[in-house]
């Protein structure tokens, strides 16, 4: 039948077919396999997938947590509704067990691709792209700005899909540590999947702003957003906060002003979060052992005057991290004990979702699929050692459980002490 359909029409039909079906359709004929596996088709498919909004009843969420029982990361896909049921048709086996101390940092999830970095429990220069649906990975080469060349330094990563150039990019900002803090400006590198290597770029970082590596990104409108700070002796407390962002298409830094209520707060307690097509800022009462968090939303993206204090989240059992917004106004977050919960900020009531991790290991984002890495990536074997295959005793497992949570707390405490001392100095 396809012999009678022009290839242009066939292409427009196929770019709307789910990824799993496309992988099977490659077996129909050599011409279909050639088309679906071509760089041209994959580029069109990724562009279409990024621009197409999910249908309302079938939105799905990708959830990651660190399982203390299995001692590994666990990824599941859930329906974005009150039931939060697991999508049984999508199985994701984590194939990188043992490559990190406990678990990877999820830098971001964009257009079906995860960016993972092994920098939470000891930096190793290991950054990977991973397409969990088609089980392919791409390990990024080592960046140019490394310890052997710079000495002690701090870095931050940003990741997303550059829709204008149909490319996945990572931006890496490295701050060299000097005798009185960070040497500015930082070194900025870009990795583009289409190119396959890092390149240092000479761009103006706004007014010596600093982004600390433990802050999360918010990828919105093709731009990576972080909270940032700079020393400003004209202000009463000697510093000020704002949002620094990086446009992945133009490769230019920009600024967004914060509401006045957040400009002078401790930058340790702030971070960004995506909210539909705009950006939100989380203000924890304290970074470690949080009890509450205020959520500010820029209701009209780019309009400083549209900042609004949407919610104040209070958890009686202690707050871990705020992760995502739900359609009905609820918020997904972790409690201090590591359980994932749905929290209604209007009533301050929580619904326990029975997913247990550590309080900082959970990650949630809208689930999407793509053919990314079908050409560039290496095939990885599915599956994961089961708990029964572990040779650890129950006592060893208990020590391991304590280890990961103690390391989370220890690393956060060290970072906060250093930054606090730096700001006070």
TrEMBL record:
CDD domains: F-box_AtFBW1-like
UniProt xrefs under InterPro entries: F-box-assoc_dom_typ1 (IPR006527), F-box-assoc_interact_dom (IPR017451), F-box-like_dom_sf (IPR036047), F-box_dom (IPR001810), SCF_F-box_component (IPR050796)
Start and end residues of each F-box domain: 1-44
A Pfam family it matches: F-box
Biased segments, Acidic residues type: 392-403
Region (Disordered): 385-404
Entry superkingdom: Eukaryota
Transmembrane segments annotated in the record for this chain: none
PANTHER family according to UniProt: BNACNNG10540D PROTEIN, F-BOX DOMAIN-CONTAINING PROTEIN
NCBIfam families reported in the protein's UniProt record: F_box_assoc_1
Identification of the protein by name: F-box/kelch-repeat protein At3g23880
Organism of this sequence: Coffea arabica
């Amino acid at each position: 039948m396809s012999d009678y359909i022009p290839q242009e029409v066939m292409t427009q039909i196929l770019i709307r077919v789910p990824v799993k079906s496309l992988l099977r359709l490659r077996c129909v004929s050599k011409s279909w396999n050639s088309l679906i596996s071509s760089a041209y088709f994959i580029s069109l498919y990724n562009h279409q997938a990024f621009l197409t909004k999910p249908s309302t009843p079938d939105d799905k969420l990708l959830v990651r947590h660190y399982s203390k029982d299995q001692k590994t990361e666990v990824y599941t896909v859930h329906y974005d509704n009150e039931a939060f049921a697991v999508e049984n048709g999508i199985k994701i086996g984590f194939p990188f067990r043992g490559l990190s101390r406990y678990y990877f940092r999820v830098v971001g999830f964009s257009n079906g691709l995860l960016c993972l970095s092994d920098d939470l429990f000891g930096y190793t220069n290991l950054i990977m792209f991973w397409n969990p649906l088609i089980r392919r990975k791409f390990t990024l080469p080592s960046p140019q700005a490394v310890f052997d060349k710079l000495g002690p330094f701090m870095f931050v990563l940003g990741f997303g899909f550059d829709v204008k150039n149909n490319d996945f990019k990572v931006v890496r900002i490295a701050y060299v540590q000097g005798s009185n803090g960070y040497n500015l400006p930082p070194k900025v590198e870009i990795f583009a999947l289409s190119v396959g290597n890092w390149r240092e770029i000479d761009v103006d970082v706004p007014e010596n702003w600093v982004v600390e590596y433990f802050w999360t990104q918010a990828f919105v409108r093709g731009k990576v957003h972080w909270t940032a700070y700079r020393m400003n002796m004209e202000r009463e407390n000697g510093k000020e906060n704002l949002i620094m962002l990086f446009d992945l298409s133009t490769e230019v830094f920009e600024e967004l002003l914060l509401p006045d209520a957040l400009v002078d707060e401790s930058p340790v307690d702030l971070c960004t979060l995506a909210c539909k097509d705009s950006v939100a800022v989380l203000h924890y009462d304290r970074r470690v052992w949080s009890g509450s968090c205020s959520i500010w939303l820029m209701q009209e993206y780019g309009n400083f005057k549209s900042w609004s204090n949407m919610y104040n989240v209070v958890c009686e059992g202690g707050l871990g991290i705020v992760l995502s917004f739900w359609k009905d106004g609820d918020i997904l977050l972790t409690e201090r004990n590591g359980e994932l919960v749905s929290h209604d900020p209007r009533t301050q009531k929580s619904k326990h979702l029975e997913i247990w991790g550590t309080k900082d290991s959970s990650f949630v984002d809208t689930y999407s699929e793509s053919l990314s890495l079908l050409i560039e990536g290496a095939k990885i074997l599915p599956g994961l050692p089961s708990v029964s295959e572990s040779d650890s005793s129950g006592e060893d497992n208990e020590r391991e459980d304590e280890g990961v949570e103690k390391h989370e707390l220890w690393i956060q405490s060290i970072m906060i002490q250093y930054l606090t001392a730096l700001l006070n100095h």
